[in-house]
């Protein structure tokens, strides 16, 4: 398929608007609605602002680095409509299987801490985590279908989303 295909570009644009506009607005807006409805005070402290700025910066850097890793190694875009031609297991993809989403979650947490919304922190952000986990589990099934045993081995070696060491398990 040629690089410029109107249908793919339209789908990529739709996915980008969802990822960069609709989800952040839903998380922050939903938090603000909950704050107002429950009469919750704004979270405000210098340490929360510092933590928020660090989480936001780390999240953005992780998203950027994972995008570079995917583009360089897989000749693809982050959009599922232009998937990688080969399985990427290097760079940020050694930390966890979904480093872009890890970065997205960190950036969202950082933004929530910066705006000080307890409703977003306690309800909207967990809803985002739930939604994205459902999406990623579906994506994992597609990756397993596409890359077969290579992805199964990758799943055994690399954590799903949180990059902490896990015991090595042998596939039966």
What's the short version?
The protein is mostly helical and 172 residues long. The chain has helices at residues 6-38, 46-74, 99-115, 118-147, 149-157.
Question: Based on DSSP secondary structure assignment, what is the total number of beta strands?
Answer: 0
Q: Tally the helices.
A: 5
Shape: globular
- Class by helix and strand content? mainly alpha
Instruction: Report low-confidence residues grouped into runs of 5 or more.
Output: none
Q: Please state roughly what percent of the residues sit in beta strands, choosing from under 5%, 5-15%, 15-25%, 25-35%, 35-45% or over 45%.
A: under 5%
N-to-C series of helices and strands: HHHHH
- What's the overall average pLDDT, rounded? 88
Distance between the termini: 38 Å
What's the gyration radius in Å? Answer: 18 Å
Binned, the helix content reads 55-70%
Main β-sheet, in a few words?
A: none
What does the model show?
Helix 2 runs antiparallel to helix 3, helix 3 runs antiparallel to helix 4 (118-147) and helix 4 runs antiparallel to helix 5. The chain starts with 5 loop residues before the first helix and ends in a 15-residue tail after the last helix. It is mainly α and 172 residues long. Helices cover 69% and strands 0% of the residues. It contains 5 helices and no strands.
List the defining traits of the structure above.
single chain, 172 residues, mainly alpha, globular
């Amino acid at each position: 398929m040629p690089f410029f295909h109107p249908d793919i570009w339209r789908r990529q644009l739709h996915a980008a608007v969802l990822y960069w506009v609709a989800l952040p607005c839903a998380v922050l807006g939903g938090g603000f609605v909950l704050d107002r409805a429950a009469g919750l005070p704004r979270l405000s402290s210098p340490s929360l602002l510092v933590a928020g700025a660090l989480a936001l910066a780390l999240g953005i850097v992780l998203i950027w680095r994972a995008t570079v890793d995917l583009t360089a190694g897989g000749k693809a875009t982050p959009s599922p409509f232009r998937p990688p031609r080969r399985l990427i297991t290097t760079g940020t993809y050694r930390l966890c299987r979904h480093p872009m989403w890890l970065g997205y979650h960190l950036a969202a947490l950082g933004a929530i801490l910066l705006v000080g919304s307890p409703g977003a922190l306690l309800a909207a952000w967990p809803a985002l985590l739930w939604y994205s986990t459902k999406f990623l589990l579906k994506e994992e099934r597609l990756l397993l279908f596409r890359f077969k045993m290579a992805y199964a081995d990758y799943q055994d070696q690399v954590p799903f989303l949180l990059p902490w060491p896990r015991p090595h398990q042998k596939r039966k």
